[in-house]
Amino acid sequence: MQTQSPFPGMDPFLEECSRWSGVHARLIVAISDQLAEKVAPAFYVDIEQRVYIVSPDDPHERQQIVPDVYLIKEQQPQYAQPAASTIVTPTLVEPSYDLEIRDRYLQIRDAENHEVITTLELLSPFNKTIGAQGYEAFQQKRRQVMASKTHWLEVGLLRAGERPAEVMGQSDYYVLLKRGDKAGPFEVWFFDLRDGMPTVAVPLRPPFDDVALDLQAAFADIYQRARYGWQIDYTRPVPPPVLRTADHNWVQECLKAWQQAAPQADS
Fold first, then answer.
1. What share of residues in the chain are helix, strand, coil (percent, to 5)?
2. Most buried in the list 33, 40, 131, 137, measured by CB within 10 Å?
3. Is the preceding omega at residue 41 within 30 degrees of 0, hence cis?
């Protein structure tokens, strides 16, 4: 199986809500590792998180809850040796739910005084769904950072969900940069499903220049390390939202070429 994605940029199959938490976590680490080397020694990168307590009954948040298990009935132990054809009585368990959602993001800090210089947010379904706790918290955080001297970098690799007015309806994906020392304009990198991901600027503090964040390299790294080529069922439809007809046909062409190349890659 191929170790590279069938697509030149974002893999739309990885946008599935149930899978995105793992993709998000891996990308956060890959981006952090890439930036840490470039900003040292004057700065360092922290992985931070917000924790939300959610209800499994809330339709906005139900998809984000991770199932777990707990014991509800303990069977009496079977001391007698059962016959070979006898099924051993199992212990019964009921599913429970992890009601905590951890929303991770990055901060670049000054190595001397630990001041936050840049905040990087990689968007998730939880902070793109109107009505969810994460959406309101994200919007508040966005306003606060944009009103401060901290740089704000917002990475949107999901086609679904709400978008800020500045980038609405412009492209499938985007990266938005609001520099802390400027009210505007925002710097935005727009890219579509058929495009490779851009290399974007990550600002620091004068006299230090911007450093480059290669999103495509970070994505390629996690795709190979996580062995997504072995995990994903590419015969299934692309997760919502529904693709435009031309994009759907292009996806099928990419998958066909990818599958044809797989034996050569494995040989």
1. 30, 25, 45
2. 137
3. yes
**Which 3 state secondary structure label does DSSP give 70?**
strand
Whose structure tokens read 């019964």? 92
For residue 184, CA distances in Å to 92, 170, 179, 266 come to 59, 18, 8, 50
Instruction: Give tens-digit pLDDT for 193-230.
Output: 999 999 999 999 999 999 999 999 999 999 999 999 99
User: Which residues, at least 6 apart from 245, have a Cβ–Cβ distance to it below 8 Å?
Assistant: none
Q: What is the pLDDT of residues 141-199, one digit of tens each?
A: 999 999 999 999 999 999 999 999 999 999 999 999 999 989 989 999 999 999 999 99
Contact (CB, 8 A) for 31 and 107: no
pTM of the model: 0.81
- The rounded distance, in Å, linking the Cα atoms of 222 and 129 is 25
Q: Which one, of 139, 49, 137, lies nearest residue 101 by Cα?
A: 49
Domain ranges of the chain: 12-266
